Structure formats: structure tokens, C-alpha cells
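1st attempt posting a full record on here, be nice pls
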Amino acid sequence: MIKDGALEDPHVDAVFGLHVSSDIDAGVIAVHKPGPGSAASDRFRIRIQGKGGHAARPQAAVDSVLVAAHVITAMQTLVSRETDPTKSAVVSTTAVIAGDAFNVLPDTAELRGTIRTLDPETRDLMEQRLIALVEGVAAAFRATATVEFIRGYPGIVNEAHATEMVRQAAIAVVGEDHVMEAKLGLGGEDFAYLSLERPGCFFRAGTKNESRGIVWGHHHPRFDVEEEGFAAGIGTMVQTALNYLND
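the predicted structure (as C-alpha cells):
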């Protein structure tokens, strides 16, 4: 969208984004502090090449599943031992694909997952060290590994003036008692591309209602929204736009 001129035809001066939040009561607006508003969301695909064989004769094979298990464990050290403890990062392996028989050691295994980071330096470190670590672990077991690091969304950056403008708009719409500071999480969000190009703020409208059982998290099979929360979100967005135009 940016390449196709979404920010230039007409020229855009500021950007504001809104998302529902299933862990905040309907009618409440949550505004992030200036600075990071989401994590960079990257993916990895690792292909481990071993040597297939009979499960009863492992000495004649190179067990790709065993190598994959060690790789999964070793990748956790990217956070626990290679990342500055004051900077957040997450490494999650979400898929293991290997073999389909009880008595065969498969020659290949594939791992897929995601890495989340909050600052560009840690993001670059993760890519560099992931590749070196995985290749080294595989080599130690006489296997080889091919690592694909797929860069996804960058992290949102909330600009101070725009953030305060959203907070004041929310107070005007729902009252100060119903405005809170949004917790920083490591979810990914494509609004980040816009926030890197223009000053702006990303905020959240609560859609939880315990009395109706609307309490399940995003992406859960039972996820639902209390639609009354939309009014607070839309009202805050409209008031923010008016405040910006009048500023």
C-alpha cells in the first residue's frame, strides 16, 4: 500500500490505528506509552538433513528427529544466554514435520516457528545467531541444516505527541476512569509499516464482558466480542482525528 502511494495521494501527515482487546472490559480504551507498541514478527523454516534408516539400527543412520530436538532446545539459548536481559525476545517452534512410520528414522525433519523482538539490534542478532547455532548443532550430530529466516512486520513506534492526542481523545469520549495504559506485548501488527513512515499511535478498545461469557482470547476457537466496545473505539478514533485537525 505504501509503495502504491497510500501515504502520498493525498499526502498523509499522521497515522492512527485501532485494535480490539479481549482482555480489557468493553468501554475501556488502552493507549500504549510512547515508544514500542508491538514486536517485530519474523519466521524461520529449518530443514535438517540426516540419513534415514531402521529404528532398530540407529548407528547406521543420522537421526534427523533427534537433531531437531536438540536444535529446538538450543534455540532457547538465543533468548536466555545471548539476548540482553533488559530487552524482550521470544523464540517459539510451532511445527515439527518428520517421518510417518513407527520403525523408520526419517532422513529429513523440518522445523517452523516465529521470533519476536522489540528493537532492531536484537532482531539482527537473532537472525545471525539462529543460522550459526542451528548449523553448528546439526554438524555436531553429522547432519546438515538449511535455515531460512523470513522477515515479517517490524515493530510499531508510537510517537509522543500523537499518543497524548489519543489519550486526551479517549478521556473526552469515555472518561478518565475508563482510560488505561496498554500493556506492551510481543504480538505483530502490520500498522508498524505506517508508524515507521509517519508519526502516529496504535491503541486498543476493550471488548470483554464477563457477564456474557465473552472472555476468550484472540485466535481462540471461542473468541467473541462485546460489540458495545466498538462505540468507545470508534468514538475515540473520530475524536482523535478532530483533535489532530484542530491542533
